[in-house]
Amino acid sequence: MSSTQPPPEIPSANPIDPVEHDYFTLNPAPASLQKHTSLARDFITTHASAGRRVVLVTSGGTTVPLERQTVRFIDNFSAGTRGATSAEYFLEAGYAVIFLYREFSLLPYSRHYSHATNCFLDFLHEGPNGSVLAREEYTEKMLAVLRKYQAAKRDNLLLTIPFVTINDYLFILRSIAQLMRPLGPSGLLYLAAAVSDFFVPNERMVEHKIQSTDASPNIRPQGAEDRQDQGQQDDEAFDNFDSSPLIPRSKRLVIDLDPVPKFLKNLVDGWAPEGMIVSFKLETDPEILVSKARYSLERYQHHLVIGNLLVTRKWEVVFVARSEEGEGIREEWIRVPRRRKTLSKIDIEVDREGGREDGGEKGKERPLDPKDLPDYEPEIEIESLIIPAVKKLHDTYIQRNTRES
Ligand code: PMT
């Protein structure tokens, strides 16, 4: 099919829910939606007819613009490491990968040479006759990465689609998830993106840059004008709004955000009901990670939640899924082995015993204590352990759902 044709409407498995209808009617579709949907459709069709599994990997953080002509926006920390690294291991495991990523965040393969501590140019030097060569000490690794990248491109196994805002993300996620339905259980959705929880809805967003002086009425807290009209400007200017009463309220920027609808439910029930869905849960408090991951699995009724903590996320994750027998929920920690430095040599300390043992429920593993973590990066990438484990669950999922259908 030509990539210039408009995407056909794919009927949802369930009738559209009013929240979904309102969101996708009241907020504008991104200008690139049609182009990206066409690319995704062609990609999925090609790989579905080759009987290949397709995974949608989402990666990086969504932004929340504060103005339509956006100068300022709210962002989050995610660099896209989890998503970009996972995409490489999915390719290695035989999947075709749609990589839905935050523009300018890390990309599979090039991630090895971008956002790095060393400048990319430090890997190069000038050779004879004005040529540019890789430094000898880096050649072996660069060549391996380059070959994998070129093979993925040559075999059309990697489609990259950028997003910037939460709105871009939601529109394109919905379209791609719906396009994946013909893949049935061979479709996998691996949602590693850090998606904003709050946003400014289109109807409340101002057109122009928010002014830092009170020249623009747009930034005035609601009611400020009324109070001025009533000659109460002095009261308003020095109201005791919080602990810094010397800053006039009219000089503050008070942002009123709506919650982003929880579309994971729509994804599971309507957009991609036959595919296997893996979501992530990020927390900073180790005490609530597992319970939040369990809650998410129960609430959305999908297939796997991968829990991770901000500070230990490169060292361990916890898989939370329904047990094989379908009764109850099980947790499994996946950890990268840690090295222990001794005076004379470096030992490998394999983390079979799990994390902290203090106060934990008997038989339950506990998250690692960040204080016990070394100050270097793990020797192996945790995604090299996560992806084979996800693939194994996906094998079972395909077997079970192909048998049943
Ligand atoms: O990029 P890195 O620096 O490597 O960091 C990786 C990560 C920590 C961001 C990643 O491992 C991770 O945990 N991502 C999910 C963060 C999170 O807690 O998301 P959430 O609770 O807002 O959403 C739960 C899940 O639903 C996520 O899988 C999210 O991608 C998905 N979601 C949420 C809301 C929404 N509207 N659409 C979604 O797809």
In short:
With 405 residues, the protein is an alpha/beta fold. The chain has 3 domains: 1-117 and 149-207 and 263-274, Rossmann fold; 211-252, no CATH class; 280-405, no CATH class.
Keywords:
405 residues; alpha/beta; Rossmann fold; 16 strands; disordered N terminus; binds ligand PMT
Structure, described:
The structure is a single chain. This protein has 405 residues and is of the alpha/beta class. The protein has three domains: 1-117 and 149-207 and 263-274, CoaB-like (Rossmann fold, 3-Layer(aba) Sandwich); 211-252, no CATH class; 280-405, no CATH class. Helix content is 31%, strand content 18%. It contains ten helices and 16 strands. It has helices at 18-26, 33-49, 81-92, 136-154, 166-179, 224-229, 233-237, 264-271, 289-300, 383-404, and strands at residues 54-59, 64-65, 73-74, 96-102, 124-126, 132-134, 158-163, 187-191, 198-199, 258-259, 276-283, 304-309, 316-322, 329-335, 338-341, 346-349. The strands form five sheets. An eight-stranded mixed β-sheet has the order 7-4-1-8-11-12-13-14, with helices on both faces. It has a two-stranded antiparallel ribbon with strand order 2-3. Strands 5-6 form a two-stranded antiparallel sheet. A hairpin with a 7-residue loop joins strand 2 (64-65) and strand 3 (73-74). Helix 2 runs parallel beside helix 5 (166-179) and helix 3 crosses helix 10 (383-404). Residues 58, 78-82, 191-195, 197, 260, 263-264, 279-282, 308, 313 line the site of ligand PMT.
